[in-house]
Specification:
Layout lengths: L5 E5 L6 H7 L2 E2 L3 E3 L14 E8 L7 E5 L1 E9 L2 E2 L9 E7 L4 E10 L2 E11 L6 E10 L3 E10 L10 E9 L2 E8 L5 E10 L4 E7 L2 E10 L5 E10 L2 H13 L4 H20 L1 E4 L2 H17 L26 H13 L1 H13 L1 H10 L24 E2 L6 E2 L3 H4 L2 H16 L3 H22 L28 H24 L1 H10 L5 H8 L8 E2 L2 E2 L13 H6 L26 H7 L6 H11 L10 H11 L3 H12 L1 H4 L5 E2 L2 E2 L5 H15 L3 E3 L2 E3 L10 E8 L2 E8 L6 E4 L1
Antiparallel strand pairs: 1-8, 2-3, 3-4, 4-5, 6-7, 6-12, 8-9, 9-10, 10-11, 11-18, 12-17, 13-14, 14-15, 15-18, 16-17, 19-28, 20-21, 22-23, 24-25, 26-27, 28-29, 29-30
Helix pairs in contact: 4-20, 5-6, 5-9, 5-20, 6-9, 6-10, 9-10, 9-11, 10-11, 10-13, 11-12, 15-17, 17-18, 17-20, 18-20
Length: 727
Amino acid sequence: MNSDWLFTQTGYDPEDLNGLGNRFMLANGYMGYRGVLEEYGKKQLVALNLGGVYDRNGDKWRETVNAPDPMAITLTRGDQAFSVLKQSPLTHTMTLDCQHAKVSRHTVFQAPEGTVTITSERFLSAAATHYGALQYHVEADFAGDFTLRAGIDHDVWDINGPHLFHYAQTVQDDTFCVFARTGEKCVPIAVWQKQFLDAPAESSIERATTGLFRNYQLHLTANVPVTLTVFFGVSETERDDNAIALAMRGVKASDFATWQAAHEAVWAKWWAQSDIAIDGPVDDQRALRYSLYQLLAIAPHGVADQSIPARGLSGQTYKGAIFWDTEMFMLPFFLATDAETARSLVGYRIRGLQAAKQKAASYGFQGAFYAWESQENGFDATSDFNVTDVFTKRPMRTYFRDKQVHISGAIALSIWQTAQWLNDPKLLLSGGAEVILECARFYLDYVKQGLLDDTIVCDDVIGPDEYHERVNNNAYTNKIIEETWRAALAVIAWLQKQAPTALKTMLDQLHYAALPQLIAASLPKLKQPLVKDGVIAQFDGYFGLEDTTVEAVRSRLLDPREYWGGAYGVASQTQVIKQADVMMMLALFPQDYSPETHQQNYAYYEPRTEHGSSLSWSMYAIEAARLGLGDAAHDFFVKTATVDLTGQSKHWAGSIYIGGTHPAANGGAWLVAMRGFAGMQVRDGQLEFKNQLPPQWRAMRFHVGYHGRHYSVTIKAGQEQPEVEEN
């Protein structure tokens, strides 16, 4: 196996449970399984997370549901448990094979008579996403009697649970099933399992209070391995439940190879479309493929109108909600590699339009105000108290739900970008145009107090930099408003050429007739940011704040888990910012600013940016690449591509756990490679590339789709013109 596709960790660190769970996560778009060991339980953060299935327990935060664990296995001999929870192993390795999307372990334990080796391999099927399988091998270098216990453990880890109630356990034709219902909406969750042991053994079924297990009393012959094969299926509908029950009853031990081959064939197809091969440091290649693996694993392939949560399928963090991360950091990858999935991502937002209009109306506005933390059907799960003060233990009022108005523009622009990239007017006519126009209408209403003035201002917002809340005229937000208005006019003009009759019907039915004129009149009046010595003020009054360093602000912390923002955060009255804000604006709209503006703002803002969000590094990397700062660009690329491999990210906001994987950073790694190092951009309807490779890379090769055409691109160091070939 080519090591460029493998991530292996040697040794066992009991303090690294969160990191292991993220690094070795498996997913298939429907469910995600954290990188845990078979002997783990809820205290070790075992989670089989179900995307799009939500529940609320009492007045706690609403979050996704973790299903019962179908891969719970323990091995004992008398009083000795061969478990990393009970004894330190002689050797231990875990490996994620990104190419084939499977995780394996190899652990050697000491016993009085000799050594015992446990190896396992598991995958969640990409070919049939409700299914997964595991093979667990046991071998001893001595003869002896052992007890192998395997089954479904329903004592699951939850952040704000429990979420599953009314448990029932059944055994039918050697097929196990644990059934439960969620508390809020009584969604039926069923986990089916069937086991095969390749050695004769006495067995018994154990109906434990925490699940359904089979106990095998087996005799091991020295140096002869025994294999337990486990198949399982998960459902949350009666239709899927019946299909899974039938499949489990018919499955055979030999089907493991068949299931795995089908799974790997799907992954081979995905990689053929999306892989980026680099001639450079092997660690860079491995980190980039790891990032792409994470995106491919959590994407809703073949499912209409679904999206990707901000923490993927790694657990319940951030309520399992969809943020602007998806549109700004992940969607571009799928646009270039998987048009069907891209349509699904924006289709989710089109489906959520009514919820966005209801949210806008609840604040007294027309148009569409999209959810900051979006759950099913666009429901906004954002709490008014997102952070807890580490000193008083009291919840702190935050304004993410109320004032992050740039979310609507991110969605509107993503739909417009998708329609243009795919050259797909049907996307606009099937709801996309309505979303864009309703977002434009929302912004007109949000700034309506200034529509009769010479200058239109946008007050009381939060930009990407969340350390400064409720500011006026955030430059990024005003730019997003401007571009949303321009997109609305462009959509109307485009449809006027492509589908004039359908456009007229839509404008009449939705009362948009006056909208174009109002937008056109408002655009030139929208307030532009203050520019001082070439530097764009992040918001009104920014330059009047204390100008200090990130290190100085960090030194003021009394507790490492303090929140830097809010009314009294250590950064809130300083120019130190959480993440790329003005720089994100420049990275997204590079052609609208001079080279000098890019350079001066990079030089000013980078030292003042804490990079407290995993979204930040990729924006700075793209800007550094465009400015010819190859080493800096490479450094930021490494940070964004390895955030889950190193574990060097924030796990707490105040006392709130925010750990999990970082798919936006994974998407950011792709953005750096493509927009940064490959210089990819669309100009006048044409896809262009520019050699901006960092000095550490000698070449990169990739495939990209645009306007229904597919291209192979090679960029080599020292070669000014990239090699572009249409397939």
